[in-house]
Amino acid sequence: WNAAEKFNLPLVIGQTAPTENGTEPIQKSFLEISDETIAVSAVKRAENGNGWVVRLFNPASGPIKAKLRLNGGQAASSRLRSPVERLQKNMAVSGAGKQQWKTVRIVNLEELPEKELAMDGAGWCNIEMSAKKILTLEFLAE
Question: Whose CB among 25, 50, 55, 109 lies 3.0–4.6 Å from 42's, allowing a Cys bridge?
């Protein structure tokens, strides 16, 4: 993973079409982690379609305690049901009508729940990672 990391480029995004929802600041972190030692190996839709999964790896030789939040602790207030709705909103960066994630929990690699984590009012949760271990988190809005 270390050799591959040297070839990674920073993610650059931009809005390519006007939307009525473009009220977010010009610069915003989708995922924030307080310790930069932790490597993010995946951010994806949960297999069951009900939330988002963040997979982390601790490359350090010792344990790490850190704080993490996904998208500022916010989730879309309603799920888009049809593929057409999802495509229409794909370019939108919505700042209005948001609610906090209701649940964040540790899941295994099969995305089966193991332990629920506490989350503060700003959407931050505390995590502890053992050395050289993978940690998978699931964020749920419902």
Answer: 55
> Taking Cα atoms as reference points, which of 97, 88, 8, 105 lies closest to residue 50?
105
* Domains of the chain, earliest start first: 22-140 (2.60.40.2220)
Q: What pLDDT does 96 receive?
A: 40
Alpha helices in the chain (DSSP H): 2-5, 83-89
Q: Is the pLDDT of residue 72 over 60?
A: no
Neighbours of 104 (CB within 10 A): 24
The pTM (predicted TM-score) of the whole model is: 0.70
CA dist., res. 59 & res. 40, Å (int): 11
DSSP 102: S
Dist CA 15 CA 92 (whole Å): 8
The partner residues of 68 in beta bridges, in order of sequence, read 33, 125
